[in-house]
Input
Amino acid sequence: MACKSRNHPLPPEIDCDHNWNYNLLVYQVVFSPAAVRQFKRLPAATRSLLKDVIRERLAEQDPTEETRNRFRLRRISDYADYELRVDPWRVFYRVQEQTVTVELVGLKKGNILLVAGKEFKL
Output
């Protein structure tokens, strides 16, 4: 039975009811010790939101692909290479092969970045 809807990239000879993406690329996400401390200080609702977004955008998608809310930092930083924006929250990370290392988790208020409750300069 062929697919009737054409809203996806499947050729007409492939059945819609089967999982067709067997080569899904998944990255391993690791938190640095500093990021773990920062993450644990966040409210539970924020931790849940960030955990879901990190899983979706950094583990299941290509973390180096630039989008509106996920991009390489313009200035060279000692702390991270990429930034992920989630509402007012910022997740700074590095990518090496198949591993994404979350280095910092902070809150953006205006033009000020707060990491662990203190102003932080990248």
